[in-house]
Amino acid sequence: MEPSSIPQEWLEEFEAAARRPLEQRWRYAFIHTYKPVLDDAKYRSFDTMEEYRRWCEENLPSWLGYGRV
Amino acid sequence: MAAFENRQAEEIRDALRRHGVQYLFGKSGAVLLGFPDTTQDADLFVKRGHENSRALNAALRELGFSLTETQAAEIERGKDFVQLKDGPFDLDLVFAPDGIERFEDAWNRRVEVEGFPVCHPDDIIASKESAHRQKDQETLPRLRAFRDYWRSQKR
Fold first, then answer.
1. pLDDT given for residue B151 in this prediction
2. Residue B88 belongs to domain with CATH number
């Protein structure tokens, strides 16, 4: 996609973000909200990504968006 | 848990550098490149290997993550995915991200942003495409457009 074909609204957002210093990019990007189940354990590990994806599908509320489409 | 901040990102970068850990900022690295999006956790793509993982464990403990011996052993073993939520901030360790075959390839394509090694936007997109998660599908059109904008700024 050439920049000329990027929707104007997105382009303006990209240009505004490019002008922000790194510190501000982090601040604007990381928004911590409680995620049920996912945030309820202090540590989790999975042997494979497939195992992790399956766990997400079987255990997390669908509205979190971790399920596969 | 407070949101992840610039100071913490710098602490990660500096601690991992001191310990000689080979890693890349993964999907959250798009933010470093200037992608205006929101995310919840920082994620690191870490090179597999006993020595690298031992160095990573040392760096994580220095940062304030209280790893048990079992957890440290799992990280050293190089599980594909580890979630840490018992430290100064939440951190995902990914040893085998979807859509990226080899760490070395991603390392060679990396982008450096103020000393932060970041996955190339193509790799971030490939990883999100391969994950097939609903939340990634919603982000991808905008991320692809950002990649093209970012490229145009590099010319």
1. 95
2. 3.30.460.40
| pTM for the full predicted model | 0.94
ipTM: 0.92
Say how many domains are in chain B. Answer: 1
Q: Are the beta carbons of B44 and B25 closer than 8 angstroms?
A: yes
Which residues does chain B have within 8 Å of residue A53's beta carbon, measured at their own beta carbons?
A: 131, 133
Calpha distance A12→A35 (Å, rounded):
31
Q: Are A53 and B121 in contact (CB under 8 A)?
A: no
DSSP A20: S
Residue A35: left (phi > 0), alpha (psi -120 to 50), or beta? beta
Residue B1 lies in a domain: no
User: Does any domain span residue B34?
Assistant: yes
Q: From the CA of A45, how many Å to the nearest CA of chain B?
A: 4
CB of B24 closer than 8 Å to CB of B44 = yes
Among the partner residues B4, B97, B142, nearest to A26 by beta-carbon distance: B4
* Closest partner CB to A45 (pick from B5, B79, B152): B79
Q: Which domain holds residue B41?
A: 6-154
The number of CA neighbours under 13 Å toward the Cβ of B48 is 14
